[in-house]
Amino acid sequence: MYWWSNRFNAMLARRYGRGGARLLEIGVGMGHLVGQLENTFETYGMDINHWAVKQSKSVVQKTQLETASAQELPFSDNSFNVVIIKHIVEHLPDPQKAIREIGRVTEPGGVLILATPNLDSMLKPWKGDKSKFSLMAFGMYLMSVFCQAQSRNCSSVRSADFRQSPDGSFFP
Prior knowledge:
This protein has 6 helices and 5 strands; from the N terminus they run αβαβαββαβαα. By secondary structure, it is α/β, with parallel strands linked by helices.
């Protein structure tokens, strides 16, 4: 599933982001996603894991990498047209702080691609029901935090889980 997820997120970034603009992937891991976007964007990647950042240097060619926390982004305001954070926020001690930071570094009209696990996936029988809350609702809540951090109405926020939001719209 990893390769499919990266291709899907790369497609979203290319479709909604502005070519040639700055893109940040938070939680870059091994660098496979940001590496796919180097020819479309000026790419930046960060991860809190020093080992992951070191390993991703062998995958990426142009991406500027650094070790940093999602809750304290080392970038100036309005630095990025696209920010991608996938399967990270549910592990953070203060996800709202991280999303406010992302709102700070995302330029007005920029794109946030936020992914959380799908607890209703076909793998649920093997994974078990370990969550007491809906990560879909959590993800949508965090999008509202992002909109507040940007001090604007996010009328173009969309959900990729059309089973829970049939028309794809966002309901704050």
